């Protein structure tokens, strides 16, 4: 894929400042206080760790756990960022001080057990995370650089991450299929090699993503095949004729995105839980931790509870806690940026306005609706979206 030089120049020009993506150690000074982000590779967090996160949110922060579009979590309004980081480290959520901001790995939330799943992404995620932390140079990756491990469903492959292991047999670069083969046992090594190649290709430019570079995906493809990264023990990649195919379905309602009950291939059940505006109260976090030994956070700001023998009692507890399990709930598809008071740029308390809008409805909107506090429109979802953009006296309604 080739990116027009003017567009690439604009992207890089807007990224001349240092990467300030927050972590658990490097916090963001928001209008409502320090904000810390904790990476969850694959979106996975154990019940014990979720309980500790909830305790930290209530004891040290605003009392809310926010879910991000990269299946990570963050806590706002921290009174003691140092104390928060220490407790995250003690809980095992901060395994590498040097690499903590680059452990951005999303994975298919049904973990290969949904109707279209082919592989279990968890071993690939674990190997990738361990290899990432073991390579000192990769600590210099941008905090927004994203890896994805797709189980064959096509859900996280459609996010166009910088590097994706997809379908159990290939590597995507910037969302494009450029004929680079891989297997579940070699995928982590290939993803790490490709990340190193991105740093080589980037040089001294401030690019955050592969697609920020002129001809980034194709140049990275040539670099990898020239050095025979994918030639050992597998069929050779055809460097002369990359297909350039993307992965379809960016607007598809994936199983991990829509609340409801999903029957897994082994006949057990999973519940996809909607989290209104992606914000869990500490109490809601504790409820989730009490229902499953493992909770999976998704890139669509939902969570998944799996391995359930029956769903009825669980959905009842979740509904009582203010969480969403009805796929037709008015909350489905509604998102918002931080807004006031957390963001100094915001012209409105968009979360409160979005909540009032939802309260006046009886069913989900036909298209997703995103509420934004200013023209930056942070958090805008992919695909077709109705945008409600604050203008200081109300909102402009737009269709993307």
- What is the mean predicted local confidence, pLDDT? 90
Shape: globular
**Structural category:** alpha+beta
Q: What is Rg? A: 21 Å
Uncertain spans: 1-14, 229-242
Our measurement of the CA-to-CA distance between the termini, rounded to an integer number of angstroms, reads 24 Å
What percentage of amino acids are in beta strands? Answer: 15-25%
- Widest sheet: strand ordering: 6-7-8-9-10-11
- The domain tally reads 2
Number of strands: 20
What is the N-to-C order of secondary-structure elements (H for helix, E for strand)?
HEEEHEEHEHEEEEHHEEEEHEEHEHEEE
Number of helices: 9
How many strands, which pairing sense, and closed or not: the largest β-sheet? 6 strands, mixed
Characterization of the model:
This protein has 400 residues and is an alpha+beta fold. It has two domains: 5-246, no CATH class; 334-399, Sulfite Reductase Hemoprotein, domain 1. The chain has helices spanning 5-13, 47-60, 81-90, 122-134, 187-202, 216-226, 282-291, 312-320, 350-359, and strands at residues 28-30, 33-38, 44-46, 64-67, 73-75, 105-107, 147-149, 163-166, 170-173, 176-181, 245-246, 260-263, 269-274, 279-281, 294-297, 302-308, 334-336, 369-372, 386-390, 395-399. The strands form four sheets. The chain has a six-stranded mixed β-sheet with strand order 6-7-8-9-10-11. Strands 1-2-5-4-14 form a five-stranded antiparallel β-sheet. Helix 2 runs antiparallel to helix 3 (81-90), helix 2 (47-60) packs antiparallel against helix 7 (282-291) and helix 5 (187-202) packs across helix 6 (216-226). The chain is globular.
